[in-house]
Amino acid sequence: MKRNKVVFAGGGLAGLALGAALLPGRVVEAASVPAASQTLLDSMDAELTRAMHSLGSAGTDSPQQPKPYFLSYAVADSDAFSMTAQYGAIASSNESKRRIADVQMRLGTPEQDNTHGDHRTSALTTIPLPLTDDRAAIERSLWFATNRGYAKALDGYLKVKTEQQVRAKEEDGSADFSKEQPKTDLLPPAPALHVDKSAWEARLRDLSGLFKQYPDVFFNTVMLQASTETDYFVSSEGAKVATPNQVARLIIIARTRAADGMDLFRAETFEADSLANLPDQKTLIEKATAMAKNLVDLRTAPITEPFNGPAILSGRASAVFFHEVLGHRLEGQRQRGDEEGQTFTKLLGKQILPSFLSVADDPTVKNFEGTPLSGHYSYDDEGQEARRVDLIKDGVLETFLMSRLPIASFSNSNGHGRAETGRMPTGRQGNLIITSSKTVSDKELRQMLIDEAKKQGKPYGLYFEDISSGFAVTTRRSPQAFQVIPLVVYRVYVDGRPDELVRGVSIVGTPQAALNRILATGNKAEVFNGICGAESGSIPVSAVAPSMLVSEIETQRQAQGTARPPILPPPPIGGQEAK
Amino acid sequence: MHMLTPRFHRTKKLGLAVLFATVFTASTRAQSDDPMLKAMKEELAREKSQLVLPGMEAPYFIEYRMDDFHTYEAVANYGALTREEESRQRVVRVTVRIGNYEKDSSSSRGDGVVMIAPRDNDPDALRFALWTATDDAYKNALRAYTTKQAALERYQSQRAENDFSKEKPTTHIASLAKLDFDRDEWKKRIIEASGLYATAPEVKASADQVQYSTALFRAAATNRYLVDTEGTVVRQGYAGYSNGISVGEQAPDGMRLARDNGSVAVTAKELESWPAFRKQVIDDLKSLDDLRKAPLVDAADYHGPVLFSGDAAADTMTRLFVPNVEADRPEPGTAARTTGAYASSYKARVLPQFVSVVDDPLQTTFAGRGLIGAYAVDDEGVPAESVQLVTNGMLTNYLIGRSPIKDFPNSNGHGRAAPAAPARAKAGVIIFKPANPVSVAELNKRLLAMAKEQGRDVYMVQTMGGDAPRLLYRVHASDGSRELVRGATFDELDIRSLRSEIVAAGNDPYVSDSLGAIPQTIIVPSLLFGDIGVKRANEEQQKLPYYPPPPTD
Q1: What is the distance between the alpha carbons of residues B506 and B508, in angstroms, rounded to a whole number?
Q2: How far apart are CA A556 and CA A564, in angstroms?
């Protein structure tokens, strides 16, 4: 499903004034319950049909003004709230209601249309729609965007035709658009957004304020987000889908700096389907406190040296690792195109992971052992039904994450065409689930690490407890490298001395090498929920993985900031103090 | 979607007393009552006394500025509400200077560290934000200072003027500006206004031609808190409101036609009334019709008399004159006085000898209505001054803040800042004062006389769209009748023509308020130019819509 962009900065989304009197402490009601709007659907239908009949000069399909062979309207109707606290006080609190339409126009034929190659974005035009169910205004807005969309698509189409005449034959000559069965499914709408603002203000002030006890943690932000959205999709193929989505998220970020200038940060994200289902305040305080104490420890932890040896990645760290190293490279459109590295394109049917590992992407799953999964959706952003996809079975690569952009090995979508509003959908992850048939307990895994380190003659192995996702570079021009940012790393010594927290570690390496060195996994899976950014924009995803023992992981020293920590201690709480 | 970004002009004078005025109350009770100012002063005192890196210089100047924004915006398209958003935000801006007034760490870009500040009136949280920002600003200033000193070594001679002017500290505590407007009423108005193209009997016959119809309403209140180590303490704010309509279509040859209008005021009540707003929309739609049917301007180039309405003259002066009287420190190593076209025009003639210009931010009203560009104290804490910019055509002053330029060692209270941005020399209330203005009827007579004398038709421009004329009329030499033409652009409308081509000015001062990043007012009467070029714009002809809009019945 489509998502409106989630803004992360302290500024937050612009707000909305609700109703005449917004008294503090009152529960805020949305102005109207967002029902699956029949008027909106009817307007979309009517204008789409009219456009398909009218476009193309004089009703005939002339080369100067060809008739579109495909047109779709995707409308994201959302109500989003966000609140941020810093230093124990509220910094922003905003609500935003939006209705945004993405018009997708295709000219030519499914074999070759205006989206070919570099011109994918020529198909898309985006426009805000009226918030009210005013048919005339909605239809006119859609007309305006469709007209612009036609001009854009026509320009793209003419360019594609010209370029195809002059370029060399492409490696992958697949069609530009797959054949799929249109779906009709109007799911019940997401419930209205209710936010008890004053209660949440108090909670956020508390959470943010506790960092005052840790003067070395000079920056913190606590961000609360809640949104409810219904996505409508109507196409000239006869698709008509309405899907709900609601999410609530609380993010805590804190920063410190070591004496030598190294910037250190930690982040925790909590997610649920609604504000009421987020963890209680006690749990959040515990987590925030643990985070603060960890940052204080990290400040004085020794810096690591470059290392090449065995390591355990916690479940959470493995989840991030798989998302970056594997997940992005299994996106369908990356197997095609002049610019892509195509790491796994030719490896279909081959062993790319140890045989005890399997990887599936299943957006139909809502929760994993009680934890909600961010990447859940019922219909993707091309109106295709979400389904479980077995990407890797017993280590063998079976398939890719497919949108309606065919590739040489697969000509159909498997319900993974996703995009942020305003972008063209491409194959993306949903819930990436890694399962293992070679599991041991945490204790055993740890012993295996020590044994492996001894075997390699290393004084220690590494344990990555928490990592943050970096970026995945999949294009041809840069080396096939990936970087994730380790946040909490320990040395596990073979001589039995206590584990030692270290700082300054970053993992490097090439994807295939890293994947083939997994020796065994733990027996408890952990969930990583996050927002994933790529060419089709930011979308919510999750990854579920057990902890993992890797025989060899290459690490280097993290690029270091050179700023000093703050010169003065923080201001005294309660005011005053100037000598 | 088409975005509404016009400059709004004033419509009718409503004759109401000005409801907004800056209050000069410097009571010590008001000072100590404000917890935000108190927190800012406390943190400033702590930093001033303690902030120094061992072996390095301590700052000689620290400034804390907190900007508090409260904005509201509603947009309607084609008769329905598309967006309604309200936002409250605070940022702090910390500036630290190393060195001394003569030579310090500042650059012409403007320095300072900006951070999100708490919306709560929480003094601890505010001090925390100021603490981290000050730390960053100090470290940046140290780096900048050594870099700058090294860079200056490259040049043969140094500039004589100080990097930072010495000013007396100011105390000025005014009431906070608050938004006050009827939300429901304005939403109703913009919804209806944006739908008039299809509902109003006067214009709905041409509804199919209209491609976009957007109405918007904006309200913004900005409050500023300023303290510095010289002892300045300022708290003041302003509010502004605007409404507007934006409609557009295409001529048969594809030329884009647009009309944008609205009003700007310091109180919501002073904005145009509903009947006036409605009439403006209808007039704009009719005008689009006229433009669509109007012929293209003559293919042959024209150089000759053009009468500018006050509206068009104000836009022209805003574009050509104002930026050049705002003093900007030029790059180091150059001997130029300032940047801009008037850099070497000090005491030279820049306008006709019969025109004088003043910038007077202390003038808060004109003909009974509030002026949006008025202010009491600038954003560097210097009291606003009335500045005689042009005296009998000669440039006698620049607008300046605390960055001195040659012959201008001190600020004249025009250091103004866009939200969260550094202060720069900026206009406040610019007023053009012709020595011998004549009536508009007289101007038209003179225009016609010039036409007859030269034996050809001449031109009159009613309103501009950016730097091109939007409503341009050909005035027939035979009988003075007017004919609307489209697709024109001006040629040689530049600072030379401001100096040499204005032959007469009207007695009809037009007030142009602009509620942009920095609110400004400019007041200019009709101006008769003796020789301006008018020619075809020859812009790309866009394709007409590929299919007609949905029926509006």
Answers
A1: 5
A2: 22
B185 touches chain A (CB under 8 A): no
* Whether A59 contacts chain B with CB within 8 A: no
Q: Hey, which residues does A94 pair with through a beta bridge?
A: A82
* Tokens matching residue A130: 């009226």
Distance from CA of B551 to the nearest CA of A (A): 8
CATH 3.30.2290.10 domain locations along chain A: 13-28+37-300
Task: Judge whether B117 is closer than 8 Å to chain A, CB to CB.
Answer: yes
Strongest mean pLDDT among A53-67, A185-199, A334-348: A185-199
Chain centroid to Cα A406, Å, comes to 23
ipTM value, please give it. 0.89
Any idea which residue has 């075997």 for tokens? A455
DSSP state of B186: H
pLDDT at position A484 is 73
List, in order, residues 6 or more apart from B160 with CB less than 8 Å away. Answer: B406
Place of tokens 């009468």: B307
Cα separation, A396 vs A391, whole angstroms: 8
Q: Which helix (H) or strand (E) holds A166?
A: helix A135-166
CATH number belonging to domain A13-28+37-300: 3.30.2290.10
The confidence score (pLDDT) of residue A441 equals 97
Between CA B275 and CA B264 the distance in angstroms is 16
Under 8 Å between Cβ of B170 and B257: no
CB < 8 Å from B in window 109-138 of A: 127-132, 134, 136-138
- Token pair of A189, please? 């709408």
In this prediction, residues B429-449 reach a mean pLDDT of 97
C-alpha to C-alpha distance for A563 and A261, rounded to whole angstroms? 5
Distance from CA of B179 to the nearest CA of A (A): 13
Q: Which residue has the higher pLDDT, A435 or B331?
A: A435
Helices A38-54 and A135-166, interaxial angle, to 10°? 40
